[in-house]
Design a protein that fits this description.
four-stranded antiparallel sheet; Double-stranded beta-helix; oxidoreductase; TauD/TfdA-like domain-containing protein; seven-stranded mixed sheet; about 20% strand; alpha+beta; TauD-like_sf
């Protein structure tokens, strides 16, 4: 990559200067000596030994890094229910709300009520999907997402009793009490499918681990709240894991404030051949007295059919170390959720990382999740200005009539590899 970049400099100089000029050769010689930044040795799947070696090397080169001041205004420590580690939770009932028979009947009645309205699915709301006793409970649980621990699991919808479309209606109807606004995830689709496609699609089509059986590293999605509905779980593996980014922040602020600064500076986010080729923004914000993190590792490393673009600025060694630190500290403090068929998992996407273990499917037990990105305007955190344009597109760009609810798996445009035209 460095040789290619130097050749580009040389070619540009040749085009700018006449070859007959006596000044050309010394100028070209200087161009050959230019040190061109290159992408660090880092992949989507993190390697702990590599992370530790990079950390040791950077600290040996600059022992003052741990004495770096935090960015202006950033807190030395966060004190909140959102600061937790997996070992703080002793039993599932602390975060699982189990629906009883009467509540499941109320949900079934709401499904029938909505069906009787004969409206497009985009009109699913608290008004059209009435839950007189379950609704207030879900509203309280939404407060838990925004001001409490940041997550809960609703157990369990009897998915086998319903068609795919009925399950989608129930999912959207119940979720409207947690966050009434549904984000577009691809085109005009507000619901997405998370399922392994590696057995049916070429590898160069798949650009995100959501469509493989691979382990997913700690990351965030887009939007305020992530909801995941398990239509089926894997035959083996696939444990859903979450971790408090506020806990991770506290450790980094105490031990490596230089990495907090790195995360709060602009990063080059790969557009994977889009226009523009890349965008820049921080991954970490301190906004309205809250830490907010928004990042996905594959935007800096690539994945399968979407390798890192060659002609965009590389990340730095500091950024590579920060990416690994987020993952391995997330792993250190993680909580594994016993995600069962029919469960809906809700997490605060602004303060909680999520990941999953690798898994194995069988013909009669194939992991399949539905995903919504939600927003509760009453409880929503204020959006940093660098994210405002994307949030506006996510939540306010289409009408109820335009919302799509695909019932089969579609690879999101942003996650399609080199064969994006494949259907």
């Amino acid at each position: 990559m460095a040789a290619v970049a130097v050749q580009h400099v040389t070619d540009a100089l040749k085009n700018t200067l006449h070859l007959s000029s006596p000044k050309v050769e010394p100028t070209l010689e200087k161009a050959k000596n230019v040190v061109v930044p290159k992408q660090p040795d880092i992949e989507y799947h993190p390697h702990e030994d590599q992370w530790k070696a990079r950390t040791a090397k950077r600290l040996a080169e600059d022992p003052s890094l741990p004495n770096t001041p935090l960015p202006e205004g950033f807190p030395k420590s966060l004190d909140s229910p959102l600061v937790w580690q997996g070992s703080d939770w002793k039993e599932e009932k602390e975060w699982v709300y189990e629906l009883n028979a009467d509540q499941l009947k109320e949900i079934d009645d709401a499904l029938k009520h909505f069906r009787g309205l004969d409206k497009p699915l985009g009109y699913i709301s608290t008004e059209t999907f009435p839950l007189p006793t379950v609704g207030p409970i879900l509203a309280d649980l939404s407060r838990e997402i925004h001001t409490g621990r940041g997550f809960f699991v609703l157990r369990t919808i009897p998915v086998d009793s319903y068609t795919r479309e009925e399950n989608a209606i129930i999912y959207a109807g119940v979720s409207s009490y947690v966050g009434a606004l549904r984000a577009v995830q691809d085109g005009k689709s507000v619901i997405a499918h998370i399922k392994d496609l590696s057995q049916t699609h070429p590898a160069n089509i798949i650009g995100a681990p959501a469509y493989t059986t691979d382990k997913q590293v700690y990351h965030t999605d887009a939007g305020d709240i992530i909801a995941l509905f398990a239509l089926e779980t894997a035959a083996e593996g696939g444990t859903s894991r979450i971790s408090s980014s506020w806990k991770v922040y506290n450790e980094l602020a105490e031990t490596r404030p230089d990495l907090i600064k790195t995360l709060s500076d602009p990063w080059p986010l790969d557009g994977f051949g889009g226009d523009p080729a890349y965008t820049t923004r921080p991954l970490l914000f301190y906004h309205d007295s809250r830490i907010i993190i928004q990042y996905a590792r594959r935007l800096f490393t690539g994945f399968l059919g979407l390798p890192r673009s060659a002609n965009i600025p590389p990340i730095t060694e500091a950024q590579a170390e920060a990416l690994d630190a987020l993952h391995f500290l997330g792993e250190k403090y993680a909580l594994g959720l016993n995600f069962q068929k029919g469960d809906i998992q809700y997490i605060n996407n602004l303060s909680v990382f999520h990941a999953r273990d690798a898994f194995t499917d069988t013909p009669d037990k194939t992991r399949h999740l539905l995903r919504l990105w939600l927003r509760n305007e009453e409880l929503a955190w204020k959006t940093p200005k660098e994210l405002e344009a994307n949030w506006k597109r996510l939540y306010y760009s289409i009408t109820a009539d335009e919302q799509r609810f695909p019932l089969e798996v579609e690879i999101r445009q942003a996650s399609r590899g080199g064969g994006a035209k494949y259907s």
